[in-house]
Amino acid sequence: MKHAALSMCAPQLRIAMLLPVLAAIALAITGCSATKDHYAAGEDAQQRQAFETATEAKASANIDTQATYLKVVDQMQQQGLWFASLAHIDALEQRWGVSPDSTRMRADALRQTGQAAPAEAAYKRLLATPLESAGYRGLGLLAGARGNFAEATQLLRQAQRRTPTDALLLSDLGYASLRAGQFDEARLPLMQALQLRPDSTQAQANLALYFEATNQREQATALMDANRMPEATRAAVRDAAQQMRGTRGPVAPVATAPAADAAPVVSAVPAAPAAPVAVAPAPAPDAAAVATLASDDAAAVIPLALKPSRWAGMGGVRTASQLNPSASAAAAPLTPTPITQGTP
Hints:
Elements: H1 2-62, H2 66-78, H3 82-96, H4 100-112, H5 116-125, H6 132-145, H7 149-162, H8 167-179, H9 183-196, H10 201-213, H11 217-226, H12 231-248, H13 262-268, E1 277-280, E2 290-293, H14 320-323, H15 325-328
Antiparallel strand pairs: 1-2
Helix pairs in contact: 2-3, 2-4, 3-4, 4-5, 4-6, 5-6, 6-7, 7-8, 8-9, 8-10, 9-10, 10-11, 10-12, 11-13
């Protein structure tokens, strides 16, 4: 009887003994599942990281020639990333060595970041290279930033002899001549600059400044009307011209031959709205009047670099959008200047 009772209880005992075992197995299975999910999430993160690393490596591998890297640095400088471009120029020269192109880019970046002395040394190193024109132009811009416009015109004229069709260089030369009081000498390069680049807001504003400074107000008004310059820009041009006339003395009106000077120039300017230029008048002879190109982005070529770097002291120089905020939205970037030509 006792044996039979034990036999009947045996299955229940076995089930009771198995329950902890089954619970442990279930817990282990759950733990394995959670661990698996954790490992899967970590694996996904590793795969994403590997993909990003491979993408970056592929992008770096695409810069496989010096010419490609030079184009990358040139684009950075067109966007105003002057400080960052200096770091990439260091990397470029470490990989491929120093070249006239890298020296020119370094000189421009040094000038734009307010480092005049090393910039001057770099520009001088270009004088015995195929980029000699860029060297003379850079030295001229530095002279203009110091307020020495007589020296600036001499140096810019040296550059112009070597690259006679560089419109921005011609515009700089004409502006420097105006600031030096050489109004007669300013006329030719300013006319050439606008006819070579009728879409250049720098050339448009500088020629209007010349017309105003030489009492050719009808021609100045016609040119500004043709390019739809806003009133704020016109007022700045007139103020700068008045200061130039005041420092030089009375200026006789320039006799213009019919259909020879102004008419072809005005007709050559497209009728579409162009990005205006704001000319900031200079309060003293040692400060250059600022003519800055307004643009939708920072890739625009900086005109009239005959002024202190906008990075000097990290402030104090107004940008085009600050001088003329209403016009900056309608501005359009210009075609970048080739690497081997003049610098912004």
